[in-house]
């Protein structure tokens, strides 16, 4: 019973985490690469026919990849921590309900025996 709830919770958290990791990776990839291209443009003195070299594009791509990678790892660590906390809370609630079940059963048996004694 506990394992089924945990697996369902794991798949939902995994789907959400993958989406957020890719979103932040691509967002910062574009922002970082664009910022590097803008710095190169202004560092060149804003020439009228701006023709960046291959080195500028490679540098912008590397900066974008580094920022995207850092953001993706940060989001991934946050999602793992969030998943662990929510899994522990979910398991705690399920364990509490499983522990309370025998007490309810014993109470029902005691009540049934008491009702039986009253009838006799």
Describe the structure concisely for a colleague.
With 120 residues, this protein is an all-alpha fold.
Task: Walk me through what this model shows.
This protein is mostly helical. The protein has one domain (2-119). Helices cover 90% and strands 0% of the residues. It has helices at 2-43, 54-119. α1 (2-43) runs antiparallel to α2 (54-119). The longest helix is centred in the last third of the chain and has 66 residues, at 54-119.
Give the secondary structure arrangement, pairings included.
Layout: H1 2-43, H2 54-119
Secondary structure class reads mainly alpha
Cα distance spanning the termini: 40 Å
Radius of gyration: 29 Å
- What's the overall geometry? rod-shaped
Structural domains: how many: 1
The helix-strand sequence is HH
Question: What about the largest sheet?
Answer: none
User: If you average the pLDDT, what whole number results?
Assistant: 83
> What is the helical fraction, as a range of percent?
over 70%
Report the uncertain regions. none
Number of strands: 0
| Helix count from the secondary structure assignment | 2
Proportion of strand residues: under 5%
Core attributes:
120 residues; mainly alpha; single chain; 2 helices
